[in-house]
Task: structure prediction
Amino acid sequence: MSVKLGVAPIAWSNDDMPELGGDTPLEQCLSEASEAGFSGIESGGKFPKKSEQLIPLLEKHNLNLCSGWYGANLRTNSVKEEIEAIQGQLKLFKDCNAPCIVFAEVSGSIAGDPNRPLSSRPQMDRDGWTNFCKKISEMGKYLEDQGMPLAYHHHMGTVIESQNDTERLLENTLDQVKLILDTGHMLFAKGNSIKIATDFKDRIIHVHCKDMRKNILDKSLKEDLSFRQAFLEGAFTVPGDGCIDYKPFLNLLKKNDYSGWLVVEAEQDPAKANPLKYAKIGHKYLSKICKEVNLEIVL
Result:
């Protein structure tokens, strides 16, 4: 099997904190992503929302659109309302031949609140879980019927954060609800990415390769920092610069016949962590490990 290497634009410009990389032109982000060796990039806030503008821009830099974030509010919206809300992004992604939509429930999320410790994240009771799983199953079926699979993103500070949350979601939803496995978020939530990839190999259609600096991870958990505090202190980094050994994980993906994207993603302050430098570190490291486990990289 083979994989493709992509990158997320969050290293250049942070949509949740515009002051981080706010003055970095999109052209710089795209040109440096290509220079670092990536063949794909996820969407971001600075990206054009119309395909007739975005496609030529991506082609100019020899990049493909390899997905992008969609923040849903299914716990408060009806499925019909959410379907209406996603139409613009759905059309854009279909026009650009993206492989999936990175879909996360953000209602009640504390990820953007600098004063809310991660322990205060939203939780669902039994009825909440039942209703949410029903709705997300409907969304998954709708998006698959549209040819744009839903890749659910477990995320710190949200209702689906931990390994247990992720397992419960997948066990109680239709197979049309797929998963993006984010190695950094799973480690931050004290979960095991290899266990998830073993037990739910047929549901994983997208991977975020995010690494963590162990000393800051330990501090964040010990002091119950907010998500924003943690990443501003430098909790996240790219593969090859943190504590995750990707060889067992990528070896398992090969065994599982995974053939999607490996997307380097790390929320960092670009003033402290030069995006091009770290993009090259991530690309070099993943390329090395893929070669070691005989996982072919295609453009």
